[in-house]
Automatic annotation (TrEMBL):
The keyword Nucleotide-binding applies. It comes from the Bacteria. This is ATP-binding cassette domain-containing protein. Pfam families: ABC_tran. Signal peptide: none annotated. Residues 6-93 form the ABC transporter domain. The keyword Nucleotide-binding applies. It comes from Alkalihalophilus pseudofirmus (Bacillus pseudofirmus).
Amino acid sequence: KKNILDIKQLLGYLPHSSLLYDHYSPLENLVFFGKMYRVHDVEQRAIRLVNEVGLSFFLNEPVKNFSRGMIQRIAIARAVIHEPEILLLDEPHTGLDQGAIAILN
């Protein structure tokens, strides 16, 4: 069981679907997923990631109101909230504009 937890800690996953809770804000989503990975200072990390993906103005807005590109940006932040060593990406550029693609790369 310990090995499985260690492996999960090493991996980040960005599937085609976002895995975000659409009634939660970006901050609530990232804090939720960050707590699952026992991220220290999870709220500060979440805020920093939302800023890095260029959506700080929408920090507390429900994800259900977001465009596909905005959702993808938050999904990227979700995938890296725990600073994984390995990141698995499934169609990561879906819905992203050139600026967001640059952030991802």
